[in-house]
Structure formats: structure tokens, C-alpha cells
């Protein structure tokens, strides 16, 4: 039988409550004992929202630094951080202060090998480097090693064109500089840039703008091949013979960006887009058909046959455009139709030479003479693949665009708007 006094022990009437309402009394027992144990043992609650785990207090860290290495110090000045970051031969040890609230003691995380600290190192280096990029006005002064260029009227004309292209790009970046703020760290920003150390060249790869033959040239300059004409497509793209700028540490990246000749070759965005579609979807391809083709057909072709869904071949240009303009693409972007503004970041990296596919052979051979390449080395003028196909030009582009609506053509132009502006390409007739 229940204890008649149990209810009275569980509930009591508050003297402050004149209306007879009841409230629970403060519980006692095991909970209070655990709190006392925690209070006397130094236990404290874990804050899972803390950006980095608390390892040591500030005083203990400073004491540890003094005892272990009196010469060590925490760098507060960004210039000192940059110098330490770029000049140190060993990985930089970074001590980061944790954000705290509710009167918690400040703490520092000091595990340089942890993924958290590695990420912080990259972010700190990126911020410093990009601040340096934006504050530095590099003088464009490529002195030709071949003195005959100075008196040659043809090269004078090309040099004048180069000056106009660089000036136009610089003016654009001054006016629209905000559009090129970095969205990720420096290693991503330079991931498309190839390095040739002997002639001190940095070349940013823009697919469908002569990049295959430019890689052949870089292989010859590196001494990897005697001629650009006997290097196969697979050796160019899959041989991994060339170094990229993101393979260096921050010091190597920064020093090369400041001292090497930086070149980018671009192409009319519509021509480049159509060229990429023809290359990847109108010919057998063991990668683009199953990876991109299947996803595109599945989402943008109603009542697609089973064969098309299984092999991904036969993608139509309109379907490809729907994929390109879709903010929820079924498969990600690809460098062959990515914007040049996101491949080479020309408002963050100041390119010394801006070549164009429309004058590719002339621009490329002039650049080779500027950097002091061997006289016999000429830019190869041949198609890398599908040599029987007609080159993609304005006439070919028109044949593809005519099947699109005016709205779709306008949206393509909007997609590549920055590329049109940066490199002064004529607005297409839409």
C-alpha cells in the first residue's frame, strides 16, 4: 500500500503562493554529490562549439615556449608572419588563440601536426599572400633576349597589341576588382598553372585554347622531348611530366609569381564552349560519356531510351547547355568549359603576356622569342585530335547556336560575361 505521506514529500506548498499552487522542491542526493566531486576534481564542462580544443592556458604555453626554446616567439605583425612563413625551412608552428565566452580562460592550441592546425596554416598563408597580390602593382617589363625583336616591325606591332591587352585587363580589374576576391586558398588558385624553371615561365592552362600544344612546348623547353611534333596526346595529358605551381610550398609559389614571366592564352568564350562540346560529346570518349553524358541525358532528356541512359552517348547541344546553366547540376563543372576567370584568376595574378587563340601562332612564337627559347622551336600548328573535323570558328558556332532560343543564348553570354569583359571580346550577336 502506498505511503500516505509520499505525496506531501514530493510536493509542498510555497509560502509565497497564496493561491494554493504547488512547485517541485529542489532535488538532492546523487546529483549534488556528483557536482561536488566535479568541483573538487577540477572537472569542467566540454564546449563542443569551441573552434579548437583547449590544450593549455596562455600562461602555460608561454612558460613552455620560454623553457623549451627561448628564441621562439609568437608573431603578431603580419609582415613577420609572412617572413616566417616564406623563409622557414621547416613547417611553421602556429599557435592560435581560441574564442571564448562566458568568462572562460583563454586557451591556445599547439599541435602542429593536427588537421586543424594544418588548415589554419593554409588559411593564414592564403590571406597574407592574396593581400600581397592585391597590394602589389607588378611592373610589366619583359625584356626580349633576342635583340632583333626591337627593330622588327612585325614584333613591334605584336608588342603594341600586348600592351593594349594588358592595359585593358588592368583597367577592368581596377573597376571590377571585387568580382575576383578569392573564394579558396592559394593552392587552388594556382592549380592550373604550369611551371618551367629553366626559362622561368608560368603558363596558365585554358583548355580548348591551344593548351595541348603549349604543354608540348613546355616539355621541349624542359628537355623532355627533342621536338613538339612527336609527343603523343596521352604523353601530354597523362604522362605527368610537367610541374604545376601548386606542387610547391608557399615560398616557392610566392617567389615564382613575383619573378617568373606569367602567360595566359584565351579564346572567344562561345567558340571555346562549342569546341569543348564537339570534342567531348561528338566523339567516343571513355570518361565524358559515362560521367557527364549519362547524368545529362537522365536529367534533361524526357523519355530517354535505355541505351542512352546506360552509355551516355549522343548528348545534344541543347541538353549540354541546360546542364551548363543549371544551378543544380547533376554533375560538377569541368575545366574544359569553366570560365577563365575561375581557372586563372587574372585579377589576382598579374599576367605579363595575354595571348589569344585567334592569333595563337603569331602570339606564341613572339612569346617564345621573348623568353629566349631556341630559335628552331616554333609553336606547332596542328590539331591535337580529330584532325579531320573543321576547326571551331564563328561559322561553326552559329550552326550550334541557331538551335537555341534567344533566351538560352543570352544566358550563355551572361554565364561567360566576365570572360567577355576581361579580354575585350566582342559581344556575340544573340
TrEMBL record:
It comes from Bos indicus x Bos taurus (Hybrid cattle). One of its GO terms (molecular function) is sulfotransferase activity. It is a single-pass type II membrane protein. This is Carbohydrate sulfotransferase. Transmembrane segments: none annotated. Residues 1-11, 29-38 have a biased composition (Basic and acidic residues). One of its GO terms (cellular component) is Golgi membrane. Its EC number is 2.8.2.-. Pfam families: Sulfotransfer_2. Belongs to the sulfotransferase 2 family. Residues 1-42 are annotated as: Disordered. GO terms for biological process: carbohydrate biosynthetic process; proteoglycan biosynthetic process. The keyword Lyase does not apply. It is found in: Golgi apparatus membrane.
Amino acid at each position: 500500500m502506498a505511503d500516505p505521506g509520499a505525496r506531501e514529500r514530493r510536493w509542498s506548498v510555497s509560502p509565497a503562493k497564496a493561491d494554493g499552487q504547488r512547485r517541485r522542491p529542489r532535488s538532492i542526493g546523487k546529483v549534488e554529490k556528483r557536482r561536488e566531486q566535479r568541483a573538487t576534481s577540477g572537472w569542467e564542462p566540454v564546449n563542443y562549439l569551441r573552434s579548437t580544443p583547449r590544450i593549455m592556458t596562455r600562461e602555460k604555453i608561454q612558460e613552455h615556449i620560454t623553457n623549451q626554446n627561448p628564441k621562439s616567439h609568437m608573431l603578431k605583425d603580419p609582415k613577420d608572419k609572412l617572413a616566417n612563413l616564406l623563409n622557414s625551412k621547416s613547417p611553421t608552428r602556429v599557435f592560435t588563440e581560441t574564442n571564448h565566452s562566458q568568462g572562460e580562460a583563454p586557451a591556445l592550441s599547439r599541435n602542429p601536426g593536427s588537421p586543424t592546425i594544418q588548415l589554419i596554416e593554409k588559411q593564414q598563408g592564403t590571406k597574407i599572400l592574396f593581400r600581397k597580390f592585391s597590394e602589389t602593382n607588378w611592373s610589366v617589363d619583359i625584356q626580349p633576349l633576342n635583340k632583333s625583336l626591337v627593330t622588327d616591325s612585325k614584333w613591334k606591332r605584336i608588342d603594341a597589341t600586348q600592351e593594349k591587352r594588358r592595359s585593358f585587363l588592368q583597367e577592368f580589374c581596377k573597376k571590377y576588382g571585387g568580382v575576383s576576391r578569392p573564394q579558396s586558398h592559394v593552392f587552388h588558385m594556382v592549380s592550373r598553372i604550369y611551371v618551367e624553371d629553366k626559362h622561368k615561365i608560368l603558363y596558365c592552362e585554358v583548355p580548348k585554347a591551344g593548351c595541348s600544344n603549349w604543354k608540348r612546348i613546355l616539355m621541349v623547353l624542359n628537355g623532355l622531348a627533342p621536338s613538339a611534333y612527336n609527343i603523343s596526346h596521352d604523353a601530354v595529358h597523362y604522362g605527368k611530366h610537367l610541374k604545376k605551381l601548386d606542387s610547391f610550398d608557399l615560398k616557392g609559389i610566392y617567389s615564382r609569381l613575383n619573378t617568373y614571366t606569367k602567360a595566359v592564352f584565351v579564346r572567344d568564350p562561345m567558340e571555346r564552349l562549342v569546341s569543348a562540346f564537339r570534342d567531348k560529346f561528338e566523339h567516343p570518349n571513355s570518361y565524358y560519356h559515362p560521367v557527364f553524358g549519362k547524368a545529362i541525358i537522365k536529367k534533361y532528356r524526357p523519355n530517354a531510351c535505355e541505351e542512352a541512359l546506360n552509355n551516355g552517348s549522343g548528348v545534344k547541344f541543347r541538353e549540354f547547355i541546360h546542364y551548363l546553366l543549371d544551378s543544380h547540376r547533376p554533375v560538377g563543372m569541368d575545366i574544359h568549359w569553366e570560365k577563365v576567370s575561375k581557372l586563372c584568376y587574372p585579377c589576382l595574378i598579374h599576367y605579363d603576356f595575354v595571348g589569344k587563340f585567334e592569333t595563337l601562332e603569331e602570339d606564341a612564337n613572339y612569346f617564345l622569342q621573348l623568353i629566349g627559347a631556341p630559335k628552331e622551336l616554333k609553336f606547332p600548328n596542328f590539331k591535337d585530335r580529330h584532325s579531320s573535323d573543321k576547326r571551331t570558328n564563328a561559322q561553326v558556332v552559329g550552326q550550334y547556336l541557331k538551335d537555341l532560343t534567344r533566351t538560352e543564348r543570352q544566358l550563355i553570354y551572361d554565364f561567360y560575361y566576365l570572360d567577355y569583359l576581361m579580354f575585350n571580346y566582342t559581344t556575340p550577336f544573340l
